Amino acid sequence: MVVSLKNISKTFNGVYALRDVSIDFPAGKVVALIGENGAGKSTLMNILSGVYPDYEGELLYKGKSVRFQRPRDAQDQGIAIIHQELNLIPHLSVVENIFLGRELVTTWGALDRTEMKAIAKKLLARLKLTLNLDAPVSQLKVGECQLIEIAKALLVESDVVIMDEPTSAISESEVYALYDIIRDLKASGTTVIYISHKMKEIFTLADEYVVLRDGQLVRQGQIAEVDEQQLVNMMVGRALGERTKCPCRTTEEKVLQVHNLSLTHPEKDAMLLDQVSFALCKGEILGIFGLMGAGRTELLETLFGLRGKPALGDFTFDGEGTPFFSSPNEALRCGLALVPEDRKSDGLVLGMDVRSNLSLSVLSSLETLGVLADVQEKELCQQYVDRLRIKAANDQQQVGSLSGGNQQKVVLAKYLATHPKVLMLDEPTRGIDVYAKGEIYDLIREQATAGLGVIVVSSELPELFAIADRLLVMCDGRITQEFKTEEATEEAILQAALPDK
């Protein structure tokens, strides 16, 4: 065994995140690490990768007892980790991020930028990605940044590579490129610990599985000996009832109309959005699908007033013609809310508690003469914690310590507290487990049933089929086709999402 964890326990503020966990990871195998958000997967990997040096139990690496004091210790011993949450320096360039801490120098001690760029270009080519290596990563999309995280891990030959939801924000073609890389790593004898909630990926790649639940080991075994339903039941500790799509309850009353929306690219002679036209009715869930770079996020950000540069076209909101919103404050004031794709960077203040995060969007309604009404804030928080079934010790718990599903619920609560007429959600279930996904779907349906117009951008077609009444497909900043969900097929949608040859 290349890695053996013996009776590992870890607590935070007296609460067990891991309790007496023992797992063996064999060399040259792909091992899927599975569990709901909050099951202890990330804590376990943070111990293995040196992020958490304090824990009970023993870690054996290549037969020797070790206790890494920092991530660099684990890296130097041949353990690499690809974090789901981006771990990049925004103002540094692509190549600088890839080589951060492992810079190459010339004989004279200067940075060997030519060699670093050549290596970075080859790494990104393996991932089917072409980028300006000198561009700061702050200018890149989430999916592109995730591929840079993967490239960083591939820079140094490792005996163990941990991948935490590596496909949560990348396109289908890039997923297949990653599959090839994982198979190459396995063939070379590298152990891959693969954390994912996507069952298709697990059954495609994994040799073995490990299931955690509530910080404890449920079972470890061969992937060929189980099916998807058995794994899900192990994860949640109960049979997961099938959720059926609620019948469409849309009205004919349009709450939002966009006609010929166009937006030029800020840096090159191209269109980010090109004559986009669509309408949204009250009580309707409108799904938007497209490959990376299709313009889906740019569309939501433009409607929400985040793009700054004035957009061309006509806009009608809640029955009134109006210019496109110039700021998020204006959008929220008028009744348009956006749950962003990257919840940790754009939706939450991780160092603040649940109550403070939830009330951020409505502080002006909770103050009198500049003084925050503490009782009203607490009541508001409790209302949405109960309504959205947010699992937290109390409203003073730091939001950064919550599971991904509960963090997403806090973001959702923050914007529902503004009482929007239209709710837009960008990849609302990225990186959360199968049970939490179902809860988010139910919450989205509840808002539509209450009369909200809802727009959902997702890269997962099964998700859109499960919740959307109608589907739009985007490619190269344009809407290429519209479908009624019950009449759509995956093949037809993917064909509409592909650029013209």
From TrEMBL:
Name of one Pfam family that matches = ABC_tran
Q: Where is the signal peptide?
A: none
Kindly report the protein's main subcellular placement as a broad class.
membrane
Keywords per UniProt: ATP-binding, Cell membrane, Membrane, Nucleotide-binding, Repeat, Sugar transport, Translocase, Transport
**Where, subcellularly, is it found?**
Cell membrane
Record-level Gene Ontology MF annotations: ATP binding; ATP hydrolysis activity
- Which parts of the sequence belong to the ABC transporter domain? 3-239, 256-501
Q: Cross-referenced SUPFAM superfamilies, in alphabetical order?
A: P-loop containing nucleoside triphosphate hydrolases
Any one GO CC term of this protein is: plasma membrane
Note the topology in the membrane.
Answer: Peripheral membrane protein
Q: What is this protein called?
A: D-xylose ABC transporter ATP-binding protein
Gene source species: Sphingobacterium gobiense
